Amino acid sequence: MAFKATLKLDQTEYRLLHCSFSLGQNTDYTTGKPTSDVMGGQINAEFESTKDTDAFKLMINPNAKFKGTIKFFKQDEDSPMKELEFEDAFLTGYSESMDARSNAPMSTSVVISARKLSVGGASHENKWAAY
Hints:
Layout: E1 3-9, E2 12-24, E3 39-48, H1 54-60, E4 66-74, E5 82-97, E6 107-119, E7 122-125
Antiparallel strand pairs: 1-2, 1-4, 2-3, 3-6, 4-5, 5-6, 6-7
């Protein structure tokens, strides 16, 4: 099943090429039992580069906090199948790449660290100091 997705960072929307996010817990090595709170909130996203510099500006300002969404669509549908919302987020990684030997578009990759993630009616909030 083919999907398409969009990433919105504050007011700017991008066409996603790839993304991943995860949550996890530390576990006891011998028993496998969880030994920590749930941790997560890091999102890796790659999108088609555009002429705007909004993502670059978020990266170079270490105090630039933002919110956003990732909407996942089935290829032939207009309404989102799933939506990931994130709040109190910072860009902690940024890179751009292009390959003139390929048909792939120039792309921007970002790492987003978010205090709060929500999918559907479920949400996870990291325990950051000063929040």
